[in-house]
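Marked as duplicate of an earlier ticket. Keeping the data here for the record.
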Amino acid sequence: MSTAFISASVQREPELLGQTVLVIGGSAGIGLETARRARAAGAKVILTARNPERLKHAASEVGALSTAAFDATDPVALERFFRDLPVIDHVMVTAGRPVYARLVEMDFTKVRDLIGQHFVQALYVARNAMNKVRPEGTLIFMGGTGARRPSVGLSIASAMTAALPALTASLALEIAPVRVNLIAAGFVDTPLSAELLGDQLENRRDQLRSTLPIGRVVGPTDVAALAAHIMTNTALTGATYDIDGGQQLVAA
């Protein structure tokens, strides 16, 4: 191997240098870790989130180009935000939370709103982003894998788990040359997971460490690394990428 080749390899430019990444839901967890990863790869980042104080702290940490505090499920606020947005390269959507409920306990008004918010939010983001994302840039949605296995209380989550890959594939055709992809995660050790599980969090971590083929719990850095790869590999579109440490392969 020549010295010139080694030197060129070492001095390779960061993969997202000169690009701009928008993270919707970027104040914590997977969104914030994706922003950190994008910055480390040379990108400028724009963050949005619902909580202004948490957003301010996150923006300061990653040196965000700009921020906007609003509810991403509000179509009016979302349209207003995108209208004033400059042309960007990538959008990562991590805003939202899973819905778990047994049939007999469901508040159907809330359920209807939550399903509409999650699914319709993706449509609103896609419609607003299609003229703001440069060709070969990507729109990345977050979904899950846990609800692929039927279980009591997961009917709503299962429906959304099945719907998002189909939506992603269709949007990849409709808004091309913008690329559209979906990250389907299993359990990820985030503040949201801690909030949902409460005092059962450590038990869940121990269970996953002992059963997952990778022998550890999936973290936000794992998902952020996958998101960065999808951003930089311009051959990827219309696909769903599982990241669960093998959770679907075992009774975890």
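See parent ticket for discussion. The chain is about 45% helix and 15% strand.
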